[in-house]
Amino acid sequence: MKRYLLFALFFMIFSEGFSKDTLRVMSFNIRYATANDGVNAWTYRKDLAASVFTSYEADFAGLQEALLSQINDLQERLPQYAWVGVGRDDGKEKGEFSPIFYRKDRFELINSGTFWLSENPEVVASKNWDAAITRIATWGRFKDLRTGKEIMVVNTHFDHIGEVSRQESAKVIAQKMTELANGLPTLLTGDFNTPLQSPGIQTILSLRSPRLYNTQDRSKESHFGGEASFNGFGSAQPRPYIDFIFATKHFKVECHGFLTIEQGNIQVSDHWPVWTELRW
Question: Which of 189, 222, 240, 260 could form a disulfide with 195 if both were Cys (CB 3.0 to 4.6 A apart)?
Answer without folding.
Answer: 240
